[in-house]
Amino acid sequence: MVKKINHIGVAVKSIEEAAPLYREVYGMKDEGVEVVAEQKVKVAFFAVGESRIELLEPTSDDSPVARFMEKNGPGIHHVAYEVEDVEAELAKLSDLGIRLIDTVPRCGAHETKIAFLHPKSSGGILTELCQVNH
């Protein structure tokens, strides 16, 4: 079951160029930058209430985010919902016939477990399930 919106992922060409909008113009708290090698991205999180904006900068031309930007340009990439147990949610969604990109969770930023649902099964929106390990 979904607990809350964990973050909204925004594809950007450069975190360095995009960050001032979120930090200085919007006044969001900068939570730092991290490289997620498995995803071939560098990410920066900005807190807004209980949720965050995640800036995604591709670190490779063959990263999923780079391919997304080739097709769509910079902008909203995905919505991430926080769940208690990613594995259980994937099993439930699979049983419901939801098309999954990930059948098993992978490692995300901040030591989270993540999995993606295909946009064709989630209203045209790339959807991430995110399990926070406190």
TrEMBL record:
<dbReference type="GO" id="GO:0046491">
    <property type="term" value="P:L-methylmalonyl-CoA metabolic process"/>
</dbReference>
<dbReference type="GO" id="GO:0004493">
    <property type="term" value="F:methylmalonyl-CoA epimerase activity"/>
</dbReference>
<dbReference type="GO" id="GO:0051213">
    <property type="term" value="F:dioxygenase activity"/>
</dbReference>
<dbReference type="InterPro" id="IPR029068">
    <property type="entry name" value="Glyas_Bleomycin-R_OHBP_Dase"/>
</dbReference>
<protein>
    <submittedName>
        <fullName>Glyoxalase/bleomycin resistance protein/dioxygenase</fullName>
    </submittedName>
</protein>
<dbReference type="InterPro" id="IPR051785">
    <property type="entry name" value="MMCE/EMCE_epimerase"/>
</dbReference>
<dbReference type="InterPro" id="IPR017515">
    <property type="entry name" value="MeMalonyl-CoA_epimerase"/>
</dbReference>
<dbReference type="InterPro" id="IPR037523">
    <property type="entry name" value="VOC_core"/>
</dbReference>
<comment type="similarity">
    <text>Belongs to the methylmalonyl-CoA epimerase family.</text>
</comment>
<dbReference type="GO" id="GO:0046872">
    <property type="term" value="F:metal ion binding"/>
</dbReference>
<feature type="domain" description="VOC">
    <location>
        <begin position="4"/>
        <end position="132"/>
    </location>
</feature>
<dbReference type="Pfam" id="PF13669">
    <property type="entry name" value="Glyoxalase_4"/>
</dbReference>
<keyword id="KW-0479">Metal-binding</keyword>
